[in-house]
Amino acid sequence: MLVGVPKEIKNHEYRVGLTPESVSELIAHGHNVTVETRAGEGIGAEDAEYTQIGATIAQSATDVFENADMIVKVKEPQEVERKMLREGQILFTYLHLAPDVPQTNDLLASGATCIAYETVTDNFGGLPLLKPMSQVAGRMSIQAGAGALEKAHGGRGVLLGGVPGVEPGKVVVLGGGVVGFNAAQMAVGLQADVTILDRNPMVLERLDHHFGASARVLYSNKAALAENIAMADLVIGAVLIPGAAAPKLVTREMLSTMKRGAVLADVAIDQGGCFETSHATTHADPTYVVDDIVHYCVANMPGGVARTSTYALNNATLPHVVNLANKGWKRALLDDRHLANGLNVTGGKLTCAPVGEAQNIPFISIEEALRSAKTISA
Prior knowledge:
- By secondary structure, the protein is an alpha/beta fold.
- The protein has two domains: 2-126 and 306-372, Rossmann fold (3-Layer(aba) Sandwich); 131-304, NAD(P)-binding Rossmann-like Domain (Rossmann fold, 3-Layer(aba) Sandwich), CATH 3.40.50.720.
- Helix content is 37%, strand content 16%.
- It contains 15 helices and 15 strands.
- It has an eight-stranded mixed beta sheet, with helices on both faces.
- Helix 6 (131-148) crosses helix 7 (178-189) and helix 11 packs across helix 12 (329-335).
- The longest helix has 22 residues, at 306-327.
- The N and C termini lie close together (7 Å).
């Protein structure tokens, strides 16, 4: 199979779909890989590193998309990229379709088979291809939030860790999953005053056992949410419903109860955001203010630490890339029900129920899609 790696073109996105080491692995399995020139530059991987291990360098994204059987990316394809997809081609990347109607429509029209990192599952009920980026984003959210709290950036002028004689900043984390856990770890490490809210009793027990007296762990209901939002200096939105739009936990009305210059960091923005006043921002212009509350809503946070993020992501995605290349998409999905859960679009049909429900459009089951697929060959 010919695997193509285009250069990411989303604003300030420096990650790359495959590292040179991952490309080497694919070539060892007998596959060909074409990489767009300078695609790895953001992680310090020059074209020569790819050619030395046997990859070819394409001079444009058009060359990559026209020739590759499978496209491996990081972020969702932008409009110009979506128009280059074709019937029978495999796209393997993050998609986050639920809040993105234009992307959904374009992928359906392309006829391509689109497998989303964020809905691939594992034996433990987790999301193993989302987890490494959730770990990065959770940790980055505290760094970003701490910066946004500085007065020069529009914040309250609060140091999260405080100093002797001055109380620390109050951090409220909404959601105790991978993002929330990592955000809380960073905030506790900075000696902030940390509260984590979640509704899953097992998650609450795990968090309480891990953090002990270092963080408060509370059951999330309307009263607890309202009380803690009003006291917070920094709120981290870390809720996730796999494949679906994020619930709006913090309403605009609630902003009036918050401290002037407090910060909302919405890590759920890829899924539409969990604050009513959220809209996606970029690393170039990361924050905006609504009702005196600073919002940080960068949709590709891990792109800011591209090298760490790319290697962490490839550690998780490479086995699936190899299987897709070795077996073809249908056989690979038939052999691995967890990879099959990543199938979002194929042959002009939507196969992700949460996306269909969020956008009120028809969808079919993954099983039906696999039964109706034309071929199982690579």
